[in-house]
Design a protein that fits this description.
Blueprint (H helix, E strand, L loop, with lengths): L15 H8 L4 H6 L16 E5 L12 H25 L7 E5 L7 H13 L4 E6 L6 E3 L12 E6 L6 E4 L10 E5 L1 E4 H10 L5 E5 L2 E3 L2 E3 L5 E5 L2 E2 L3 E4 L5 E5 L8 E4 L6 E6 L25 E6 L3 H12 L9 E5 L7 H8 L7 E5 L17 E11 L2 H12 L2 E11 L4
Parallel strand pairs: 1-2, 2-3, 3-5, 4-6, 5-7, 6-8, 7-9, 8-10, 9-12, 10-13, 11-14, 12-15, 14-16, 15-17, 17-18, 18-19, 19-20, 20-21, 21-22
């Protein structure tokens, strides 16, 4: 085909699979629009391996200031989007679907349509499903069985729109034989779901939970390699036992001080544990025996943030004393309490880190003038780099002096101040 400029249309002569690959970088709406280019392009969009449905591409153009009219316009755009999604899924060719995504701030009346989208998408046997789940009034979220029985699915991402709180994710059965990664955002999970997930996903390697409510007592897996619990709420004691786990990220979780234990973490290399928790002292009432650090012994990188309250300090001292030696630990970032006043707690860590190369100290901002106990006795030959983050230079100087008594040689020493505000 020649254009009016005399140039040859070489793109249209490419094989179908190449054209489909090119279109996969567009949103599905734009990919469908290419059907008007020529007869050659009329059905190309039906074999694109990536479907990206984005509600934000269906803007509501409001012309009336009347609130009821605004609502009507919103509904029109939502109906238009629903019709578009259904049409694409129903007219899609039989070729393999790699990825399907749904993005948008969907409202409650979109719940039923979205379940139909997910059902139809799963039946097309994709490798990846990533979906924002609309708000709905029910307290439980039951996804189509096809989603949790899709044999081709390797990555599943479910994000619950957060307008009406958090919905419990319930599922009668889970059989995802190829699933390697699952990411859940703003959902509530209980023991029943966790058990079905871990049993029904025999090759699951990455479990990523963000902003979730967790009523889970046990996460045990022989195949899990990455576990992320970020900004979650825990409502009961949680035991984590994952011998194949390589990376653990446990940050900003509320109510975590008294309800976490780590066991059988023999493959762990990287771990970030944030137990700074709440400032409410009631959180620390009736603390059970802490069992945390023994699960981190094989790590080469650790970032540990602990609450400064004395109730936790005592627990940590007991846990450190009984945990053994960190023979592989090369990089340690530790903080959130005053390490000048409670230098003994830091000393307990350091004397169990014989090959430590880099030490970063994140000091509590409160300036404490009390000096530490003098019954600390340990000696380290060499630390390559010491970084200190604080807002009080005198505190950092005191800490360097204390370290100097126990570290024969320190390489680079850097002190940074917290940014104002």
């Amino acid at each position: 085909m020649k254009r009016r400029s005399g140039r040859i249309d070489r793109i249209s002569s490419l094989p179908n699979d190449v054209l489909a690959h090119v279109l996969s970088f567009l949103s599905t709406r734009d990919a469908v629009r290419t059907c008007v280019l020529s007869k050659r392009w009329r059905n190309t969009w039906t074999i694109v391996p990536v479907l990206n449905f984005n509600f934000y591409e269906f803007p509501t153009e409001l012309v009336s200031e009347d609130e009821d009219d605004d609502i009507d316009e919103n509904i029109k755009e939502e109906l238009k989007f629903d019709s578009f999604v259904r049409s694409v899924l129903e007219n899609r060719g039989p070729s393999h679907l790699d990825t399907v995504t749904f993005r948008g701030e969907f409202m409650s009346h979109f719940y039923e349509p979205s379940m139909r989208w997910l059902d139809r998408s799963a039946l097309l046997m994709p490798r990846v499903i990533s979906a924002m789940i609309p708000v709905f009034e029910q307290k439980e979220l039951n996804l189509p069985d096809s989603v949790f029985s899709c044999a081709s699915l390797e990555l599943l991402e479910l994000i619950h729109c957060p307008y009406n709180g958090t919905a419990y994710l319930k599922q009668d059965s889970i059989a995802l034989t190829s699933l390697k990664t699952i990411k859940l955002v703003n959902l509530a999970l209980d023991d029943d779901f966790a058990r079905k997930l871990l049993l029904g996903c025999p090759v699951l390697e990455n479990l990523r939970l963000f902003d979730c409510i967790l009523c889970i007592s046990d996460i045990s897996s022989n195949v899990l390699k990455e576990l992320i619990l970020d900004d979650c709420w825990l409502y009961q004691h949680m035991r984590i036992s994952c011998p194949a786990l390589v990376s653990l990220l446990f940050t900003s979780c509320e109510n975590t001080i008294r309800i976490i234990s780590l066991e059988n973490m023999t493959s762990l290399v990287y771990a970030t544990i944030d137990l700074s928790g709440s400032d409410d002292e009631e959180v620390f009432d009736n603390l059970p025996k802490l069992k945390l650090l023994s699960g981190l012994l094989n790590a080469t990188y650790l970032k540990l943030l602990f609450h400064p309250l004395p109730e936790l300090k005592e627990q940590l001292e007991n846990d450190i004393s009984n945990c053994g030696t960190f023979y592989n630990l090369k990089i340690l970032r530790i903080g959130a309490w005053n390490m000048v006043k409670h230098f003994s707690l830091l000393a307990l860590f350091l004397e169990r880190c014989p090959v430590l190369k880099q030490l970063a100290l994140l000091l509590n901002r409160a300036v404490i003038q009390e000096m530490p106990r003098q019954d600390v006795s340990f000696q380290i030959e060499y630390i390559e780099k010491v970084n200190i983050l604080c807002d009080e230079e005198k505190l950092a100087i005191k800490l360097v002096q204390l370290l100097g008594r126990h570290v024969k040689t320190m390489g680079n020493i850097n002190v940074w101040k917290y940014l104002d505000g």
